[in-house]
Fold:
Amino acid sequence: MNEGATTRTLPLAGQFAVVTGASSGVGRCLALALAREQVDLCLVGRNPSRMAEVASAARRLAQVTELLVDITSDEGLRKLRRVVEESGRGLGLLVHSAGVIVRSSSEQIRQEDFDVQFAVNVRAPHSITQSLLPELLRAQGQIVFINSSVALVPGQAEIGPYSASKHALRAVADSLRQELNPRNVRVLSVYLGRTATPMQEALYRLQGKRYRPETLLQAEDVVAMILAALTLPRTAEVTDISIRPIQNPL
Structure:
């Protein structure tokens, strides 16, 4: 090492993390960033090819388990719990990044589209957290809910059920924080404005709008803020991060 060079400390190194929605978007970016922090990972997703790509990149830096499951199913929940329990390490970090949106007017939305948004966006994070809570308590871990800026404003046209699900997720996180802070578990909600992800690109295409990712929030910037919060000393807790693109805030 050159004289005067310093080695960056890695405060999360050696921990075990579960990241849902790890195959794309913010979940993918955060998973790779955690691998660079030498955090061992259980990556949860449903797209085999994209999961394989993320896992391959992360394995150069950390131990990685891939879990291709439906997080809304009881069987998927059992498989995830089994992986965490068999690690024998406790759960230092649980990231809820999976999400789904269906644009439709209240008049035309199908019941199954309403239901899937609540199943993925609310029920799954709640059920996963409940199932893995013993391991989170054992490690005095941290929970991150990747939410949306729509949870902070009144409902918007054509995304009523999505907006409602994100308001509900906010309530789930806030309640958990009140319950778990006395037991040394931190809970962070991240409220994102429009972010350059495959989901956002699909929404632009659906609306017939030009997709310009350079005007949107970048996943790398979101991850930098999350890591800053996660690595704070345990004398402090960041409860909420609201972050939006400066050029395209809505």
